[in-house]
Amino acid sequence: MNRRRFLAAVGAGASATLAGCSVIDPSAAADDYDVGMTAEAFRPYEITVSVGDTVVWDNTSTRAHSVTAYEEEIPAEAEYFATGGFDSEAAAREAWDGNEGAITNGQRFSHTFEVAGDYTYFCIPHEGAGMVGVVRVEE
Fold first, then answer.
1. Is 20 left (phi over 0), alpha (psi -120 to 50) or beta?
2. Coil, strand or helix: which one is 134?
3. Is 9 helix (H, G, I), strand (E, B) or coil?
4. The dihedral formed by the CA atoms of 11, 17, 21 and 27, expressed in degrees to the nearest 10
5. Rounded Cα distance, 123 and 102, in Å
6. Domain 3-138: CATH architecture, name and number where available
7. Is-contact 37 12, C-beta < 8 A?
8. Which of 48, 79, 81, 100 is deepest in the core (most CB within 10 A)?
């Protein structure tokens, strides 16, 4: 997984996305992601990156998933993130009933982390099964 090579390939498209988040073209190289999704887990569960790094999630499963931050479990100064571009956990949960914010097999989502700290996130439909992950951002 070479995050820098992937970011170079994505280039200006990734930097122009709203709030540092985007769904990425599924035609990108298969091994250029940081976190994969199985049926009911993020792999790896925890990842450590530096401030300013972009994390890429790839839905490697056949199920639809979300990447949804727990609003109370991210640094206070950090921007909220969720697939679908929602600005709050409540909005992401409410929209899920219509499958808004879902990413399907082969789709990717990315977020750039600008504030140091721990970010806990989950998959809305598989939260009850324990599909939770952590991004640890260091200076």
1. left
2. strand
3. helix
4. -50
5. 9
6. Sandwich (2.60)
7. no
8. 81
Beta partners for residue 133, in sequence order: 121
Strand partners, 8: none
Q: What is the pLDDT along the chain (139 residues), one digit of tens a residue?
A: 344 333 333 333 333 333 444 444 444 444 689 999 999 999 999 999 999 999 999 999 999 999 999 999 999 999 999 999 999 999 999 999 888 999 999 999 999 999 999 999 999 999 999 999 999 999 9
Cα(55)–Cα(35) distance, rounded to whole angstroms? 8
What pTM was estimated for this model as a whole?
A: 0.78
One-letter amino acid of 70:
Y
| Residues sharing a CB contact under 8 Å with residue 119, sequence separation 6 or more, in sequence order | 69, 73, 74, 75, 78, 81, 113, 134, 135, 136, 137
| Polymer length of the chain | 139
- Tokens coding 101: 């914010």
Asked whether 86 and 92 are in contact (CB, 8 A), the reply is yes
Residues in Cβ contact with 1 at an 8 Å cutoff, skipping those fewer than 6 apart: 31, 32, 33, 34
Residue ranges per domain, the chain?
A: 3-138
